[in-house]
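The instructor's notes for this session suggest beginning with a concrete chain rather than abstract definitions. Hand out the sequence below and ask the class to guess, before any prediction is shown, which regions might be ordered.
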Amino acid sequence: MTKFNKVIVRKPGKSYVEGLTTSNIGTPEYELLLDQHEDYVKALKKTGVTVEYLESDERYPDSTFVEDTAVLTHDFAIICNPGADTRNDEKNLIEPVIKKDFEKMYYIEAPGTVDGGDVLQADDKFYIGISERTNKEGARQFKNIVESEGYTASIVPLKEFFHLKTGIAYLGDNNMLVAGEFIDHPEFESYNQISVDNDEVYAANCIRINDYVFVPSGFNKVIARLDSLGYNVLPLQMSEFQKQDGGLSCLSLRY
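After discussion, reveal the predicted structure:
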């Protein structure tokens, strides 16, 4: 499993409550949102990474979800071309931040679109989801880039989930947490599958960072399964991010 040394996050702005969402579970409470984001940053520091904390940008309500703007490896960065019109310019916010640490930069070019939430890395393999935000041309460009760097890649059309990583997480050691349409999916049959029950699907978006696995609080069956496998599980409150379709992976760029 890749060891992470640095993580980029962005503070949610007050405009966050005006961001995009498909959920119908209420309006976010801004002060609670900030508390949850602060707890997320504290948890990141516990894993041993350096956290680069970017200030909020009120022009972009969804910009705390930095994952959608780029995909980072230890050797190169890919600046994505986010598929939502109101979020597309977020890539221009993150590019100068990433350029400080990466000499090798690639770019997804229009008409291709890619959201980072549609990209899953499992060791030397990338999976790229085709969704409402990531189109076939963007997925093709992304696949070509990572294959030119010696990785393998597969394109996975989505049927149910908003983003690829809404329903799947790689935890290292050939263990893949899967929910919904990804349970018994042929693309992931070579992994040890840890299935998520339908009533805990939100917890499929978890992240492993070094010796810890971050999981949304309150999803006790997923937490118990990961505990039983020996993972150091770190539950985090995510209610105000869930209201805007956000998950744990969405809130950071990890490399």
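Then share the key points. The chain has one domain: 6-254. The first strand starts at residue 6 and ends at 10.
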